[in-house]
Every structure is written in structure tokens, then in C-alpha cells.
Amino acid sequence: MTTTLPAPAAAQPAPETAREARWVRPSVAALLLGTGLLYLWDLAKTGWANDFYAMAAQAGTWSWKALFFGSLDPGNVVTVDKPPFSLWIMGLSGRLFGFSSWSLLVPNALAGVASVGLLYLAVRRLSGPGAGLLAGAALALTPVAALMFRYDNPDAFLVLLLVAGAYCVVRALERGSTVWLLLAGVAIGFGFLDKMLQAFLVLPAFVLAYAVAAPTSLGKRVWQLGAAAGAVLVSAGWWIAVVALWPAADRPYISGSTDNTVLELAFGYNGLGRIFGEGRGGGGGGTFTPPAGVELPAGGRGFGGGFGGETGLTRLFGGEFGGEASWLLPAAVIGLVAGLWFTRRAPRTDRTRAALLLWGGWLVVTALVFSYMSGIIHPYYTVALAPGIAATLGISARELWRGRANFTARAVLAVMLAVTAVWGFVLLARTPDWQPWVRYTLLVLSAAAVFALLFGADRLRRLGPVVAVLGLCGALLGTTAFTLATAATAHSGGTPSSGPATASGRGFGGGARGFGGSQADTAVIDLLKGTTTKWAAAQSGAMESAGLALASGRPVLAIGGFSGSDPAPTLAQFQQYVASGDVHYYVAGGRGGFGGGRGTAGEIQTWVEQNFAPVGVGSATVYDLTKSIN
User: Fold this and answer.
1) Domain enclosing residue 107, as ranges
2) Position 198 in a domain
């Protein structure tokens, strides 16, 4: 491998020839323009995507307080069950451009373009533009990336913040910079404010890469990493501190927590509960009850492990996960092992090994956690794995190609390509009726490139570019086709999955509506549009009430938050809202994701049924709370 040769000084940029420099800028422009087209084209067909987060973003356009806390309604009764960073961006976009599906989703698409661009820059600084371009393209053409960067879940901004953190670590590695390392900590801290402890999965890789390869003394590396940890705590902790110090009676209930605190949410439902499956499937407790008409995937064990199937190393390759991000995963793992072996005798500050520790560590830690976590996990979570796969592949493939005069390097590269082709064929065969020519074409292209690599045709000046193009086409054809199909398919609901329309019914989500993608009765919507009260209506759980709020453009109180099981509002509070004339209607039948109809939500529904008469409106049961029967 080329890193066995004398390496440039750690503080210097990777050497590139004048010929390379001429093609770099047009190639980068094509990468970013193509990514923007892929993620932004016909974005409106997605509609509100996940109604749950769209409802909170809508509330943020009505109330600054709701925007700050991530409340589900402008009356600030209860929050979403995540921190609000992504809602801040989408809510501000709605305030600037008017709230619509476009203003909701465009920030996420732009976060995708920025993630690809930052990944290119980060990989380029240590491994050159060729590796950077391959890494950026691999990320852009990962199906789950096309899915989530066209969606309103928090994952799009999580990926952007994590890649930004990695870029800062790369800059810190160049000269042992404290400032850049602190900025990396800030990025991870804000990642925590987007999706809590999931943002911390990259920290072991960041620490390992800097501790091993930073061009400074051990003592300085230790205190710099300590300072960066402080930056993480400050950038994540300021919002937690504000929420903790804010009088609980004057802020919304923290959905998903058992004690109305952010820390319990972070380390309970959104933390250890996710990893170890400690029973809770939604805010406030309770076990999973699937929404009407929704079945758990095969192999499911309740919500804790239902969406992800059985734990183990094969999970990421299984039917529910395989098509999301695993297309290039086997090749990336092979490239990582080969890269670490070839650089085993390199100097401590070797660029290639530092890059492999950073991105390969990201890949390994995240993959292992996703493979073995027993709590709530959805296949689309793997979008956070995609940058690690893409960067590791780009770096290792570039180094192996540069060292192709060595038969071992060529053989490893050939194995990576062959494995990618075979695995792509297997994944495409899971949807046998969709474009079968794709899987056979990638086999032919890859076979030709593998043959050329093994027999050394790439060493001939005129054939080298041909072999490279054949290999890239064979490796990327499968994931590209699936990504294009994903972008061309309308997705909605709380558990979307990648792939073409013919495959979107597998598991949860896809093109079909799962929870978080409710259909509201048009007659009820017309009724709510005519209200002037603080809340047009109330309904148990956010899954159905979100549809009411979005379709009517009027505030709706989601009793019990996401799941319908949070104790917010209490029965006494709801009775006070009704007595004050703040709620006009109650819409029965809202179950939420879990537990709706039990606890506080059940008490409120029982009280409404006993004291108010139903109004004949459409197919829904609606109670006029301004007219008591007592």
C-alpha cells in the first residue's frame, strides 16, 4: 500500500498533481449539483412526511416558546420525545418562507447536500480528492440517505452535525489544533440536542484517532481531549440547564420521560432503554400496541426489537435493514482491515491510518451498537452509519488503487469489488420484479473489472482508467439504482423504508403510511377550520392529532404526547382548559403510537363521554366541548 512508502509531513496537504487539480473542481461541482438534484427534485410529493415532527414544526411557527422547547402545540402542553434542534431549523424555515411541506423539507435536503460536501472536504484533507469524491458519492448514493434527507425526522441534521464534527477532528489532526478539537466537541454537543445519545456513538472513534495520530505530545493530547469533552457538555448542556431551571408549571411536559426532565429522557427512553430494551416503548411508560391496521415485521418481539428483527451481526444485512445502507458495508470492512494491516508499521502520525481510525472507528462502533441494541431501533437509523461506510471505502479504495503495482493490493481491491457485486445482486434479488437487468449488469461490469485487476491490465496506462470506470460502475450501480428508486417514491409515516414503490410495503413504512402519517376526516377538518379557540380540538396521542393540525392549519392538543401515555395534560388541567373555553372539540379515537386510551388520556376520554354529546360529523366521533349535557 502506498503508505508503506515515505509519507508527507502530517501538517502538509496530500500531494496532488497538476493534472488531478484540473478535474477536481468540475468533479466536485458535479457531485454537489447531482446531490442537490437528487434530494430536492419533486420534494413536495413527500407531503408532510412524518406528521408527528411536522406538527411540532408547525407549532414552532406559531409560538417562539413552542419552537424553543419543541412543543407539539403552540399552547405548550407537551413536547416531542426528542430534543428540538431539527425543529428549530424547520420551524425557522416555516417562519421565513411560510409553513408548507416545502419549507419543512428543504432544510433537510440542504443538510444532505452539506453533509456530502463536508464529507468530501474531510476525506480529501487526509487522503486526496479522489478518495473524497468517492466518499461523497457513496454517501449521496446510499438509499437511506436519499430517504432521510428528503424527510423531516431528526436524522438528517444528526448526520450533518456528526460529519461536521469529524471534519473538525481532521483539521485538528493536521496541526494538533485545540480550537478545531473544541469545535468538534461543539458539533457533537449540538448533535445531542438533535438526537441525544446517538450523537455520542462517534466519540470513541474521534478520541482514538486524535489520541493516536495528533502531531503533539501525549500530555497535550490528553488535556485537549478533556477540553473537547467540556465543549460537548457545554454545547449540549445549556439547553438542558435552561429546561431544568424553567418552572415546570410554565413549560411543556418533556414527552417520553417519567419525571418531566430532559436527563431522564436522554438516559432512559432515548438512551439505555434503546440499547438494552428496558421495556418502555413510548413516553411515560407502557408497552407497544401497534396502531390499527399495522402489523409488526416478521421476527418482531414487540416494539423493543420488533422493527429491527433479531440482534446480532447479521441484523444490518437482514430484510429490514439490508437495503438501507449495507450495499458497500462488506467492502468497507475489508478495506478497513487491509488498510490497518498495510499501515501497521507507519509512523504514529500517518495520515492514512489516522483517517482509517477516524472513519473506520465510526463504522465499527455504530454498526456494533445497531446490531446488538435490544431497544427501539428502526432501519432508517442506519443513515448515521452511512458516512463511516462511505469514507472508509473511499480512503481504502484510493490507497489500494495507488498501490496496485503490488499484487496483494490488487487482490484485496478485487475482493472488495467482487463482494460488493455479489451482495448487490442479493439485495436486488429481494425485489425480483423491479428492474432485474440492474443486478445482472452490475455482475458483468464487476466481473470484467475483477478480471482486469487480477491479471494486471490496469497497469497499462491506457487501460487503467477503463478498469477504474468499470469497477466504479459495477460497485455503485446497485446502490445507485435503489437510491434513485427511493427518491422517486413518495414516503410518509413514522417508519419509512428505502426502495422502489414495489418494495415499499415491506416491514413498516416505505411508501405506505405507518404511524406518524395519519389521514384526517375532511368533514372534521372543515369543522376545525371554523374555530377561533386556543385549540381547535383535542385528541389522544399525536399520531392522529397531527393530521388534524396540519390539514386544518389550526392548533390541536395532542393529549399524552406522541404515545398518548404522557401525563400531560392531567384531567384537572384539561377540565380547566374546557371551562376557560380554550378547547372547542374533542375528537375520539386517537390512540397514539402506544398506550392511547389508558392512563390520563383514558380518564379524559371517559370524562368527555360522560359530560358532552357527540356531534354528527363525517366518520369520526366528535364532541363539542362548549356544550355540556349536564
Assistant:
1) 81-402
2) yes
Domain membership flag for residue 512 = no
Single out the residue in 402, 420, 447 at which a domain terminates. Answer: 402
Residue pair 492/513 in contact by the 8 Å Cβ criterion: yes
Query: Which are the contacts of 32, defined by CB distance < 8 A and separation ≥ 6?
Result: 113, 116, 117
Return d(Cα 121, Cα 340) in angstroms, integer. Answer: 22
d(CA 127, CA 396): 9
pTM metric for this prediction: 0.91
> Cell triple for residue 143?
438509499
Apex 276 CA angle, 271 and 277, nearest 5: 90
DSSP H/E element including 212: helix 203-213
Residue 390 near residue 329, CB atoms below 8 Å: no
Distances (CA, A) of 274 to 270, 302, 320: 6, 13, 18
Q: What is the pLDDT of residue 20?
A: 59
CA of residue 15 relative to chain centroid, distance? 34
Domain boundary among 353, 373, 402: 402
Contact 76, 251 (CB under 8 A): yes
**Which residues, other chains included, contact 6 with Cβ-Cβ below 8 Å and sequence gap of 6+?**
none
Q: Provide CB contacts within 8 A for 249, sequence distance 6+.
A: none
What 3-state DSSP class applies to 589?
coil
Helix, strand, or coil (residue 583): strand
305 within domain boundaries: yes
Cβ atoms 556, 545 nearer than 8 A = yes
382 lies in the same domain as 526: no
Domain assignment present for residue 440? The answer is no
Number of domains, the chain: 2
The residue ranges of the chain whose pLDDT is under 70 are 1-20, 278-308, 458-461, 502-519, 590-598
Q: Are 374 and 304 in contact (CB under 8 A)?
A: yes
